[in-house]
Amino acid sequence: MAPIPEHDLSTTGGTYDVNEAGIEFRHAPPLPTPKDGTEFLSRLENNLSLKVLDRPSKNELVFELVGVDISFANALRRIMIAEVPTMALEFVYMWNNSGLIHDEVLSHRLGLIPLNVDPRLFDEYGFDVDEDGNPAATDRNTIVFRLNVTCGRNAADDEKIRKKMEVKWKGEGLVSGYDVAEAQKKKEEKKSGGGRSNKDEEMEENLEPSIMNLSIADRAAADAVSSSNVQPTPIDSPHRPFTKHIYTRDFLWSPQGDQLSRFPLHSAGVGSGVGGGIRPLHEDILVAKLRPGQVIELEAHARKGVGKDHAKFSPVATASYRLMPHIEILKPIYDELAEELVNWFEPGVFKCEPTDEDGHRVKAVVSNPYACTMSRNFMRNPILKESIKMSRVPNHFIFCVESVGMMEPAVIVAEALKVLKAKCERVSGLADDALAMGE
Question: CA-CA distances (angstroms) from residue 91 to 129, 304, 390, 416, 419?
Answer without folding.
Answer: 18, 12, 52, 26, 26
